[in-house]
Amino acid sequence: VQLVESGGGLVQAGQSLRLSCEVSGSIFTVNAMGWYRQAPGKQRELVAIMAVKDITNYADFAKGRFTIYRDNAKNTVYLQMNSLKPEDTAVYYCNADLTLVRNVEGVRVDRNYWGQGTQVTVSS
């Protein structure tokens, strides 16, 4: 199982980007998927997360500009980023909390995965 990210790039301030993250491999279910980012010299921080029943949580800086949504059929989560600012420049990482196995015998295997990261650069 791995997370395959795409969609980063270089844009000007005010423009938009959409990031995508697909779960590749056999799983039982997706419990939560989200996006984090890490700028140079800073700690990794939460951007947005979507859990079961599509409950979402956004960092304050993302509210009103970013939207997280997913396609359950494709096991893919997206991050639509609008009105980008230079301070949004960072490596964006996808994170997924997955149940790999769950059966009637009571076996359950949960794992947490990170994507490889995708660079987002916003010029002023």
Description:
This protein has strands spanning 2-6, 9-12, 17-24, 29-38, 45-50, 56-58, 66-71, 76-81, 90-102, 108-114, 118-123. The strands form 2 sheets. Strands 2, 4, 5, 6, 9, 10 and 11 form a 7-stranded mixed beta sheet that branches. By secondary structure, it is mainly beta. The protein is built from no helices and 11 strands.
Please state the average pLDDT score: 96
Structural class: mainly beta
| Poorly predicted runs | none
Task: Name the helix and strand elements from N-terminus to C-terminus, one letter apiece.
Answer: EEEEEEEEEEE
Oligomeric state of this protein: single chain
The portion of residues assigned to helices is under 10%
Report the β-strand fraction as a percent range.
over 45%
Major sheet, described briefly? 7 strands, mixed
What is the CA-based Rg, rounded?
Answer: 15 Å
Question: How many DSSP H or I helices?
Answer: 0
Q: What characteristic shape results from the CA principal axes?
A: elongated
Total strand count, please?
A: 11
Separation, N- and C-terminal Cα atoms: 38 Å
Outline of this structure?
This protein has strands spanning 2-6, 9-12, 17-24, 29-38, 45-50, 56-58, 66-71, 76-81, 90-102, 108-114, 118-123.
Topology:
Blueprint: E1 2-6, E2 9-12, E3 17-24, E4 29-38, E5 45-50, E6 56-58, E7 66-71, E8 76-81, E9 90-102, E10 108-114, E11 118-123
Parallel strand pairs: 2-11
Antiparallel strand pairs: 1-3, 3-8, 4-5, 4-9, 5-6, 7-8, 9-10, 9-11
